[in-house]
Amino acid sequence: MMSEKLDVLIISSSQRNNSNSLKVSNYIQKQIFGSSKDLVSSILDLSDFPFLLDHYGIERNDQKLAANKKEVLDKLYTCDAVVFVVPEWGGMVPPALVNLLLLTANGSANGLPLGHKPGFIVGISASGGGTYPVSLLKGYAAKNSHLTWLPQHAILSNITDFLDHPWSPEKDNRFSIVQSRLRTGLQSLIIYGNTLKKVRNELVLLSKEHPFGQ
To answer: Which pTM value belongs to this model?
Structure first.
């Protein structure tokens, strides 16, 4: 039986402890999801799982690695929608996120934990960047995960100043407009999540016939 509440997972994609990605993840959970009674949200902080960087196609008898992988995959399987908060590192995404997405392929995950679940990207940058994570993820990350990217995304540049700005998405200034885009995109994610939840099992069965996206 499907849960009545939508389960939204926010992935803080930085490998650094106490990162800006984690701050943005907490910001989203508080400012946008905190007042909703129709969903539950949680944060997956990739800095808590350094052992996952050691795993892809490597056979190791490592109990901690296996436990890390199971804990992460359990979170991915149980959620209904995903927010990816992704820092731009030298025009790329952190390797921890790449490895996470590799783990979501059918052969690695014994299924498709993100199959036909909507994903929303929040690219962040300490300066004026943040666009490259969006292009990279939408360009390749759905092939074997069968994730469904929303057409919307949000780019949070000058992230320290953004987080210091009062929550005021109705106002007409630089940071408030970005807040409005973020809120609108995540409201869309909720609608997508509730809609795809009803048909996901059928779609995943079809995806498993050709799980590698060709």
So the answer is: 0.94
Residue pair 47/17 in contact by the 8 Å Cβ criterion: yes
pLDDT value at residue 50: 78
Domains of the chain: 6-207 (3.40.50.360)
Q: What is the CA radius of gyration of the chain?
A: 17
* Residue 187 to residue 168: CA distance in whole angstroms: 16
Res. 199 pLDDT band, cuts 50 70 90: very high
Q: Which two tokens stand for residue 174?
A: 């630089």
| Residue 201 DSSP one-character state | H
Q: Quickly count: other Cβ atoms within 10 Å of residue 189's Cβ.
A: 24
